[in-house]
Amino acid sequence: AADKIRLIPQDFFAELCEQIIQHLNHKIPGVNTAELCQRIQTSGVDITIGDLAKVANTLSFLFSTAARNNLSTEELVTTLGSGISTLPKHAVQVIRHVWNEQGKAIAVSEDARNTATVGQFVDMKWKLGVAMSSDTCRSLKYPYVTVTLTVADPSGQITDKSFEMTIPQFKNFFRQFKEMASVLETV
């Protein structure tokens, strides 16, 4: 990850660290690495979304481990300096600054984070479509619903999951949501 961190400009690296800290503090559901990667690439840096996700996972592990061990800023920086692959100076400066400013808040919320082992629902979009024809069938006229769920996995990576349903499947899906809503109203 250290090699990939060297590629990321300091301002984008600082933004990534800030988003990870906010995620660990449960202020945002996750880090949108796809959007950040696109902005980094637009600035002229050749980095893939997979590489940026690895950097984000490494930083998330670093910050959450430091919080679990109640490391001070100096202890964290010393630990980073003693690693096998040393981080670039700008990255250590950013990590020092972010940890110094917001690291203590993670230590308080880390116990709650340890209980979260599933993803977090962020958003849902749907659209109604009709398949008119295909190369094997001239006249389908088959209605369907496409649902896209935006989910933040436990590490904070935001991903979209899409699926299609027939109208009867969608009606069942809707009925189950209504049941959940009525149960939630009683809580």
From TrEMBL:
Lineage: Eukaryota, Metazoa, Chordata, Craniata, Vertebrata
InterPro entries membership: COMM, COMMD4/6/7/8
GO molecular function, one term: NF-kappaB binding
Domain COMM: 120-187
Entry function: Scaffold protein in the commander complex that is essential for endosomal recycling of transmembrane cargos; the commander complex is composed of the CCC subcomplex and the retriever subcomplex. May modulate activity of cullin-RING E3 ubiquitin ligase (CRL) complexes. Down-regulates activation of NF-kappa-B. Inhibits TNF-induced NFKB1 activation.
Protein name (record): COMM domain-containing protein 6
Transmembrane domains' residue ranges: none
PROSITE patterns according to UniProt: COMM
Annotated family: Belongs to the COMM domain-containing protein 6 family.
Pfam families: COMM_domain
